[in-house]
């Protein structure tokens, strides 16, 4: 039997700090076999870092080079300990429950600083070790030449409050850092005279560039922020975590609502013939975050211990493997999510839990 040709897909990668290692696992599984080709990636924050490393690896040597580059990137992240943690790794492994305590302690320390001082006071020289990691792993001048996949990286313009999407041919390390610049942690990143914060506020990630600048109909969203939580948060940390999730999902849900509206226009034949060819019926797919991150706090997004990152990677591999087994045959044919039932209709969503 002849081997089936890989199916083209577009990817949307959310931001979420070190939880981006889950998306690393998803990408590793997609790259490990030849079921799909990655036509374009839209991404924000940690997703933008994954996307840049992915594209650079694909440019250098295809799927295997991309897998190697992603491994190199996350290994360097763990070595830097960008969460400012001071807990010895052996204690994290040896004492049950110590990891969560360490995450909470580190997060409490950061929160105390954030509530007292701005990033301009705490870090006046704007040192960010993640930028050094990125430039060690990715040659951005070479990345600009990438034709293996298209990149769309979102950042938030501080003055206008609007999304700015940067494309492959212009992307450098500053664009990635702008997309990941949480304003309570990092100074705004200045690019061409404008200041930018984390892209998650206005697009986590932005989906619309895929509709205007690619012809591939299949979109796979890799979530890092749970849409649904069954329990009502009552502790201050739980409340902050849920507020963060809702905030960073809001822009994505708005774009999914727009896709659902276009699907209805096409399905119910509401468009004049002159306009039908101008709209594309997007096939939406989704690898959700609810199961993986159900018991993880906001503090865990700052944990860069290698054992934690590789655990998230393995969970991502398993989720991607299950998704391909269940839905892989639908690529190129139909959506595998019900936008209203899975994302937009609150009563339906809660009944399904």
TrEMBL record:
It comes from Parvularcula bermudensis (strain ATCC BAA-594 / HTCC2503 / KCTC 12087). A motif (GXGXXG) lies at residues 15-20. SUPFAM superfamilies: FabD/lysophospholipase-like. The lineage of its organism: Bacteria, Pseudomonadati, Pseudomonadota, Alphaproteobacteria, Parvularculales. It comes from the Bacteria. The keyword Hydrolase applies. This is PNPLA domain-containing protein. Keywords: Hydrolase, Lipid degradation, Lipid metabolism. A motif (DGA/G) lies at residues 198-200. Residues 11-211 form the PNPLA domain. Pfam families: Patatin. The keyword Methyltransferase does not apply. InterPro entries: Acyl_Trfase/lysoPLipase, NTE, PNPLA_dom. One of its GO terms (biological process) is lipid catabolic process. The active site is at residues 45, 198. One of its GO terms (molecular function) is hydrolase activity.
